[in-house]
């Protein structure tokens, strides 16, 4: 097969409506489900409830899907699942809008080239899988397995991972590592010897005083965390929020400190400075359980509240008062680590600063402090032979976290290696590359255009599918089994099951079946059990349960974790020193700062503003962009750009008008965005929610709604320790509509 070097051939292609579901097809499928004789689900109007878990974000709450006449009509929070407690966040209830989305991918699609022109056509599964297997095989033979990379997000990837392992491919990247959880995991682990987890190990409901930097609960809707904070507030919890923007959480806080963006480490150092210089820290705990106190003090002694005030724009008296109050409530006080932790390439050190602040209070394993949850002891699935493995880790960054083996390289290294033609094929599972990838939309597209072969597994005709050679339509999480969600630490350890609520619609298939078909074509034997049910049953048998049993409630719940330390308990930490590392020798020996240092970040050019981003309660970017059920709420339909009134006046902008945004590199937003004039944001910054501005017309709902945040990102700052990427050193100005 000729895969030539014609760049034009990977032009963005528009999928014909014929290959999409369409509303007529939706109703006929629903009709079929109703009349089908082999369906296991209720065909009459008796209600049946199926327990499973949500896929609208990685929190994975337990859901109860209510089925009537073969159709899901309501999704509620599972009463049995510890992460839900009978409740869901708004997005969780919106699964109906995903499964019954009339724009869904309905058939496999193949890109064909004739006379230098490309077109897309419908294919059978056999043809699509044969073609995929052939191309991947050829590329592996010619360039080696390292020329193939898998990009993934979401919980259905595990079966593909197994298949690729057996095939010898071990380049797995997830953009969510780069932006989101990578620095947090490493920053925490370098300090405590363990991560903070999802849910984070902060005993929020018993806490008296919590500090938040950025982290905007109430907009970031992690269900369990929001429930725990609410319970904490009911019990008298006081909250302090450092955010350049008055967030929803700031609205619940005792204090909102509009900190200058990018100066958080200076603020954290100043808080430590007060704790130490006024001897408010837990001396006994620090002496017994930490190393590097002198090095820490040497680094932070210059960061007095007065000095920090000039950097952060927060008055010195305020800083002193917060540090003192924090100490007065300790150990039932903590700093929350946040989730999206890479902002300016110093995220790993910022998370270390958070961990150190916590350590100074002696709140480790104390009510209301930092806690370490335990996991349900579910044995790992049996390992498959993978004789072709070359390397476990492909990332060049010394503190890159390999979460085995789902993550072995950063997504920006994959992009870079693709531009250099080292990587030739991508297999993309649940990542909307143009709207998410690390180096901005423009670079992501350039990389995709260089590929010899690209597969996208998705449920919708998202932008990413327009660049693929093969599009494989996966059914939604409500129509399939996935692997068990087990081994995540929580106060009540659990194992939960994703199971089909209804059968796959159209010609879509579960990931586990697609991966199995690929393994068969590639002649990889023994990778999968006879069926996914057998696999799940065998795993559950190991803990004395069965698939049949767990299907009933969707979850197995273990004994509650012992969260708190006993008086006199000797603590051990899995760090190189066996103690909490206030100064890190491993960072130092690799040429990094042993103690987090404040580094000044670039300032916006004249007339430009730092572009900050965050979340909306009812949306999760690519996962919900086209979900009519969620997007019909007026506040969800489009994003807005938050502008301070004095800046609005300077640019003659009025509330509600539409503008285009232009970034520092001259990129202009494809679609206009509505101006929100508000005192809730500092003058040096603007704010918009990520996940809007879709440019693919096939997303009939999401198309052209608001502006795309990712389009305006063209500068990426790489954290040289973990390889994670910050994008908050991008700046925009306004272009008024003619
Ligand atoms: N509803 C909903 N919930 C979600 C998601 C979603 O899409 N929808 N996405 C999930 C995902 S993937 C993630 S990673 C998390 C992210 O959620 P968080 O971890 O809570 O996000 P952050 O980026 O920390 O927080 C964004 C806030 O940081 C502020 N901020 C920006 N720059 C700075 C700064 O320099 N200093 C300080 N102190 N604050 C700053 C912004 O103004 C904004 O209020 O949310 C998760 N939860
Ligand atoms: N500009 C900018 N970029 C960002 C961020 C930002 O704030 N701004 N946030 C970053 C963060 S914190 C994160 S975590 C990442 C997440 O970004 P991504 O890794 O891209 O993940 P999602 O947006 O969650 O998922 C996107 C794709 O998954 C598809 N999908 C949904 N359900 C399924 C399914 O069941 N099966 C399959 N196969 N596909 C499915 C959707 O249709 C969509 O194409 O984005 C990061 N990128
Ligand atoms: S937090 Fe919301 S979207 Fe995320 S898994 Fe839970 S219910 Fe679903
Ligand atoms: Mo994230």
Description of the structure:
- α8 packs antiparallel against α11.
- β4 and β5 (117-122) form a beta hairpin.
- The chain has a 7-stranded mixed beta sheet, with helices on both faces. A 6-stranded mixed beta sheet has the order 21-23-22-27-20-24.
- The longest helix is centred in the N-terminal third of the chain and has 19 residues, at 125-143.
- It has 3 domains: 109-178 and 382-477 and 509-536, Rossmann fold; 185-373 and 564-589, Dimethylsulfoxide Reductase, domain 2 (3-Layer(aba) Sandwich), CATH 3.40.228.10; 609-736, Barwin-like endoglucanases (Beta Barrel), CATH 2.40.40.20.
- Residues 1-9 and 23-40 have low confidence and may be disordered.
- It is built from 22 helices and 27 strands.
- Helix content is 29%, strand content 16%.
- By secondary structure, the protein is α/β, with parallel strands linked by helices.
Features:
single chain, 738 residues, alpha/beta, Rossmann fold, Dimethylsulfoxide Reductase, domain 2, Barwin-like endoglucanases, 7-stranded mixed sheet, 6-stranded mixed sheet, 22 helices, 27 strands, disordered N terminus, binds ligand MGD, binds iron/sulfur cluster, binds molybdenum atom, metal-binding, Asp_de-COase-like_dom_sf, metal ion binding, molybdenum, iron-sulfur
């Amino acid at each position: 097969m000729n895969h030539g070097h014609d760049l034009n051939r990977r032009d963005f292609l528009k999928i014909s409506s014929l290959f999409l579901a369409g509303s007529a097809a939706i109703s006929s499928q629903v009709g079929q489900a109703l009349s089908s004789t082999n369906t296991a689900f209720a065909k009459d109007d008796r209600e049946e409830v199926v327990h499973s878990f949500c896929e609208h974000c990685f929190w994975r709450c337990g859901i109860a899907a209510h089925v009537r006449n073969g159709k899901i009509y309501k999704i509620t929070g599972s009463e049995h699942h510890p992460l839900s407690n009978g409740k869901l966040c708004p997005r969780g209830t919106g699964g109906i809008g995903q499964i019954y989305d009339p724009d869904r991918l309905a058939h496999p699609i193949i890109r064909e080239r004739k006379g230098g022109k490309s077109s897309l056509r419908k294919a059978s599964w056999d043809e699509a899988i044969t073609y995929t297997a052939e191309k991947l095989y050829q590329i592996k033979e010619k360039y080696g397995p390292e020329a193939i990379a898998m990009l993934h997000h979401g919980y259905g990837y595990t079966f593909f991972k197994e298949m690729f392992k057996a095939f010898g491919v071990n380049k797995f990247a997830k953009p969510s590592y780069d932006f989101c959880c990578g620095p947090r995991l490493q920053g925490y682990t370098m300090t405590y010897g363990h991560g903070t987890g999802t849910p984070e190990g902060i005993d929020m409901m018993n806490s008296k005083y919590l500090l938040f930097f950025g982290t905007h609960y109430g907009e970031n809707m992690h269900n369990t965390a929001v429930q725990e904070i609410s319970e904490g507030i009911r019990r008298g919890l006081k909250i302090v929020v450092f955010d350049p923007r008055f967030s929803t959480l700031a609205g619940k806080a005792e204090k909102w400190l509009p900190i200058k963006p990018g100066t958080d480490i200076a603020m954290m150092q100043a808080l430590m400075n007060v704790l130490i210089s006024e001897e408010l820290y837990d001396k006994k705990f620090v002496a017994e359980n930490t190393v590097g106190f002198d090095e820490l003090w040497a680094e932070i002694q210059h960061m007095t509240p007065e000095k920090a005030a000039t950097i952060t724009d927060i008055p010195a008296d305020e800083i002193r008062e917060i540090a003192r109050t924090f100490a007065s409530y300790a150990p039932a006080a903590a700093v929350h680590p946040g989730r999206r932790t890479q902002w300016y390439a110093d995220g790993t050190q910022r998370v270390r600063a958070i961990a150190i602040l916590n350590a100074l209070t002696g709140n480790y394993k104390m009510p209301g402090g930092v806690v370490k949850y335990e996991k349900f002891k579910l044995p790992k699935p049996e390992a498959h032979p993978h004789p072709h493995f070359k390397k476990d880790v492909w990332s060049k960054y010394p503190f890159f976290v390999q979460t085995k083996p789902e993550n072995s390289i950063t997504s920006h290294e994959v992009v870079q290696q693709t531009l250099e033609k080292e990587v030739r094929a991508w297999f993309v599972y649940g990542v909307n590359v143009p709207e998410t990838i690390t180096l901005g939309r423009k670079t992501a597209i350039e990389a995709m255009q260089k590929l010899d072969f690209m597969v996208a597994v998705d449920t919708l005709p998202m932008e990413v599918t327009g660049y693929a050679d093969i599009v494989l339509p996966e059914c939604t999480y409500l129509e399939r089994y996935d692997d068990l969600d087990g081994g995540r630490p929580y106060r009540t350890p659990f194992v939960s099951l994703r199971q089909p609520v209804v059968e796959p619609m159209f010609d879509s298939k579960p990931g586990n079946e697609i991966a199995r078909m690929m393994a068969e074509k590639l002649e990889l034997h023994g990778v999968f059990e006879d069926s996914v049910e057998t696999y799940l049953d065998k795993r559950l048998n190991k803990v004395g349960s069965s698939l049949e049993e767990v299907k009933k409630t969707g979850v197995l719940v273990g004994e509650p974790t012992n969260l708190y330390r006993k008086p006199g308990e000797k603590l051990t930490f899995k760090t190189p020193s066996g103690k909490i590392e206030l100064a890190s020798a491993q960072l130092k020996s690799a040429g990094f700062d042993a103690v987090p240092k404040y580094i000044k970040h670039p300032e916006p050019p004249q007339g430009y503003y730092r572009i900050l981003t965050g979340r909306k309660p009812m949306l999760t970017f690519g996962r919900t962009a086209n979900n009519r059920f969620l997007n019909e709420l007026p506040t969800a339909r489009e994003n807005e750009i938050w502008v301070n009134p004095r800046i609005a006046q300077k640019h003659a902008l009025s509330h509600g008008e539409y503008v285009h945004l232009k970034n520092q590199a001259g990129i202009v937003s494809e679609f206009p965005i509505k101006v929100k004039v508000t005192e809730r944001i500092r003058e040096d910054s603007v704010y918009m929610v990520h996940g809007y501005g879709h440019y693919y017309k096939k997303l009939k709902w999401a198309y052209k709604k608001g502006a795309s945040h990712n389009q305006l990102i063209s500068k990426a700052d790489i954290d040289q320790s973990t390889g994670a990427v910050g994008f908050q050193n991008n700046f925009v100005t306004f272009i008024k509509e003619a």
